[in-house]
Amino acid sequence: MKGHNGEIYFDAKANQLTRVREGTTESFTDPILQVDRQYANLRTFFIEQQIELLPTYRFAVFVNPKVILKLYDYPDYERVITGQSVPPFILEKLAKKHPTNLTETNNQSLSQFLIEHHCERLSPILERYHILWEDLKKGIPCPQCQRRPMIRERMRWQCLACGTRSTDAHYPILYALALLMQNRLTTILVQHFLHLESLEATRKLIKRAGYIKFGVRKAVYYSHPDLLIITKSKSGHKTIESGHKVSKSGHKRT
Length: 254
Ligand SMILES: [Zn+2]
Description:
39% helix; binds zinc ion; NERD domain-containing protein
């Protein structure tokens, strides 16, 4: 799925997809190559999990209704479509071609299985979309009326607008921050974001929420345990962990 708007065309000379919007031209990754790569990963996952492979079609779908596709020169133009054409395509072309293969129950358990194995993808979101830290709305929104910020009072969050009190309103915000920050929360960052009084109170709050501490002194950061499975394979945590591994195996060899 692609959210681009503007005119998308294929530059056959440069062999690149290009977007023209408000007078500027930019090129981007070929979505068909991308979806084929994703399909290869999905197929490997299905095989590993011993799930029977179903008929699969790979398309790049541009979902922004303002997009204009001009892909006559693109070799795979039939596989690049807009969001509106998805339902008729499934109903008219694919459904007729393939008789029902899965029972309703099997279908449900397969989708449940995929949801259970879903992993969040961590990427430097702010950098990628050129969003400044200053532009983020800070403070905890009230779970009842959504107004910010809630005030910390006697170990609870209090909404000054509607009077709602909460003990755990910070959980979703901490998790969202962990996603934004590649699973590295520092006390200063959280204190600033949640408008907390002291670093010590912030530290306690993060620890009580179940975050795991990494690093020492000024390099301390906290990670959400559920996201470690992803960040482990990324640069940050790897440095620390593989560092240990290297020294251990080094000892064994000598
Ligand atoms: Zn409220």
